[in-house]
Amino acid sequence: MGAINATALEELRAGMRGPVITPQDPEYDETRKIYNAMIDRRPAAFAQCVDVADVRTAIACARDTGVELAVRGGGHSGPGLCLVDDALVLDLSTMRGVRVDPKAKTAQVAGGAQLGDLDHATHTFDLGVPAGIVSMTGVGGLTLGGGHGYLTRTAQALCAPVVAVLSARVSLVAVPCNLLVEFAIAPATVLGFAALATAPWAMPVAKALAWCAGWPAGWIADVARTGAALPGAGVDWPGSWTGAALLALATVALLLAGRRLLRHPWWCGACGVLLLLAVVQPPPLTRVVTGWPPPGWRFAMCDVGQGDATVLAAGAGTGVVVDAGPDPVLVDRCLRTLGITRIPLVVLTHFHADHVAGLPGVLRGRQVGAIETTTYQEPVDQAEFVRREAAARGVPVTRAAAGEERRTGGLSWRVVWPPADPAVVPEGPNDASVALLVRSAGLRLLLLGDLEPPAQRALLRSPAGPLLAGVDVLKVAHHGSAYQDPGLLSRTAPRLALISAGADNTYGHPAPGTVAALRAMGAVVLSTDRDGALAVTGEGAELGVAGD
Length: 548
Description:
Blueprint: H1 6-15, E1 20-21, H2 28-31, E2 45-48, H3 52-65, E3 69-72, E4 88-91, E5 98-101, E6 106-109, H4 115-123, H5 139-144, H6 150-167, E7 169-171, H7 174-198, H8 203-229, E8 234-236, H9 241-261, H10 265-280, H11 283-290, E9 297-301, E10 310-313, E11 319-322, H12 328-338, E12 342-343, E13 346-348, H13 353-356, H14 359-363, E14 367-368, E15 371-373, H15 380-392, E16 397-399, E17 405-408, E18 411-417, E19 435-440, E20 443-447, H16 453-461, E21 473-475, H17 486-492, E22 496-499, H18 512-520, E23 524-527, H19 528-531, E24 534-537, E25 544-547
Parallel strand pairs: 2-4, 3-4, 11-13, 12-14, 13-15, 15-16, 20-21, 21-22, 22-23
Antiparallel strand pairs: 1-2, 5-6, 7-8, 9-10, 9-24, 10-11, 17-18, 18-19, 19-20, 24-25
Helix pairs in contact: 1-3, 6-9, 7-8
């Protein structure tokens, strides 16, 4: 790569109307500042063009000397692509003219024009610009792909097949979420690196910078969580190279079709609305299309993988949530599809992660009255996690004990385990699970958490034991593991036994012996690993269950 010598610089200055700025000029440091202040590169010269003739002169200089040429438009590129060490920068930042043709609805812009300039010029003719969200973005970089132009879509087309191989899933919200967080990336990055740089010698300053960085970083995280939690955020896709090839072909076809659709605004609008509905999946529409959740559902078991998350219906948009599962996204999605916006009580049967780690998803965007937990505060880290999440949202935390009775709407329940006697020490978190005997109109349900046989036998001998006879629905303990007390199963004699377990889990849940024993008693046995999310409807002879 060549270099600009003094003679070439003099010839460049003589041939340009605009200034040529070099490191010897006092305005050099100010000129090389760009949007991302972390970029510190020192070009050999800036050719600040004011017209097309200046552009030609600068390009000819770079060609003749062999020096590397960089182009600066709006200067908004996060990686600082417009600055290259020892290069000649074709600086178009002063060329910001915009010419609008209102009849053709097109605009010609100069190389340094920004979206703010284009917006200002088009608004005069009651026109708008369907591109970008930051007014200082350079139109040239945006159009050529430095912002959200064709290369952004090309990048999505190239990356999506690889992501599909790794995750067997294709995101429908990645591009919109990226657009929403674009303005926050640079400040989060700059402030974060500044905090790292100042920490060794000025920790108070570093903490202040980190606190500032937390705001844009928090926005990025919130958008990511919200997008991922949408019911239609992604679709399953073959996790193989064949699937990747199919996705690449589908993406290219979609891009080609999209360019044709741009000529038809009404079709674009219709497709946008359909995509929005597919991603958001509003419960009323979902119920009409899929039949889920079924009308008049009483109890729902969410499909959250290897964990527990269930909901007791307590009125329109209201439900008592029992356990939160292992994944905030999955439980939030389940509650959205059920239309749950108000939760009088969240019951966390015990503090294992597969029952409490999803708590942020339960609390997100919903009115929650209180959280009730077991008295056995182990594992300690998970118990602390629950208290921390509750405190952050101002939700009170109480502890359940046998004999407690509650009611909300047409729903009532009694805590049957653990004992209120503090002298009774469980063998571990599972045996400290909160167990509930629930009545929903004429329907009786027993939710056993993860109780193991010792606690199950103790429950049978407790004052609540006689109340457990002949329930309609049994939430089988501990994901249907092999460790069940035959006496308790015989006493409850459920008509419907539901098991929450993850597909292909390594624990062997549900155990074939447990399923066989329940069926031998006449129970209908369903599990989320095979049947997906489940919802119980009706009562008596009309008792039924539906899957999603």
